[in-house]
Design brief:
With 294 residues, the chain is an all-alpha fold. The chain has 15 helices and no strands. The protein is globular, with a radius of gyration of 19 Å.
Length: 294
Amino acid sequence: LTNLAPALKKPVFLRAMSLSSVLLFSSTASLNQASFLQSPDNQLAETGFNQGEELFKQGTTESFRNAIPKYQEAAQIWRGINNRRREAEALSRVAAAYYNLDEYSKALEYYTASLNLCRAMGDNSSGEAHALNGIGNVFWATGDPPRALENYNRALELRRAAKQPLGEAYTLVNIGSIYWTIGESERALEYHRNALSIAQDINDTRAQASALYNIGLVYAARFESEKACQYYNESISLQGANNDLRSEPATLNNIGLVYAGLGDEEKALNYYEQALSLRRKGQFRPGIAITLRN
């Protein structure tokens, strides 16, 4: 299990960002905006944005790359017609795509631009929380837990105040992952279990899978192999149903690590091979390299 941490650089949530943005941002529509929303320019931006969403949901390196210009074009159109809320949302999606490509400086640039735009509006706490959470993700991935935790906690406050349980659940998972990183496993479990409870209450299977995975990760790091596999397997059943080509192979890979630590090389190899197959399907080169190394 000594290779457990390198097996997954980020919490599973951070690869599960293909959720519809409407869940993360305040609705842009109201009755008095109907004519504006049906304008040709706005419809063109919406079409491009939705094309970006479909590409993003495919979860491959190529699809993330192809989604970026769709989001950028939508952001540019919305900027031109002064739809700042949707512009901020599109910028955040560009950031998420770059994040999934491991291009962290560009991800931080776009998350920061989205955050600044949300704050300038003064009435978009949900968009602000989403950008803060994304910035926390970048700092987590680049090895700066204190700054990641600072941004996550600010996002959590906003999401709780706005009564956004889904966003709250994901941010709780990320905070738990920070505590796992710095060796505070009991505190990590507390946050992950709270996230799981919320995800179950709202019946969101992606959030449940994320929390279950991360609970398994904590137990694996504590060499509690049976519990680790229990939670990993619960997570896999949901990841597979959601066609999550990033999270499912990460979980399979880590189950392999558990069995390797127990000396069961045959079972470990079986899980590594399953993980490798899915990672090749998702064209995720860093993950492929990790599994081949294992």
